[in-house]
Fold:
Amino acid sequence: MQIIINILWVVAAFWAMEFVAWFAHKYVMHTFAWELHVDHHQPTGKFFQKNDWFALIFAIPSWLNMMFGVMNGFDFRFYIGLGILFYGIAYVTVHEVIIHNRWGNRDKIKHWYFQGLARAHFAHHKHKEKEDGECFGMLIVPLNFFKRPVNSDQ
Ligand SMILES: [Zn+2]
Ligand SMILES: [Zn+2]
Ligand SMILES: [Zn+2]
Structure:
């Protein structure tokens, strides 16, 4: 039954990361690290944003957990690192590809879940300054964003 426990570590780490990401977005990126996040709210037109550094920063705990896990015979840390990695992939896919259409290859979003996420995130982007933000989460957003008609865009 070790495999079940391993899967639970992955799932737990994945959803814990949604909380970590929300917390970091609200209390780190919109406060003392605003300098690195500002060009995500006030686009410069350049392909890479300073905000992209956060993707690399969040790769560090994933890599460290996986490395220490491997060094200890693939213990629970490996699966925590894997969960963080999966969250990173999901975050980049949802935020950069599906919501911001960063590479111009987004199919029209029809699924109610992704439409809700996009509405919530665009509400976040209405705020150009670091103060008075809303909707700092990515995969878990307030329920009211899911309630509007399925085919309206925002
Ligand atoms: Zn923000
Ligand atoms: Zn965004
Ligand atoms: Zn944002």
About this structure: The mean pLDDT is 92. The radius of gyration is 17 Å. Residues 40, 124 surround zinc ion (ligand 3) (CB under 6 Å).
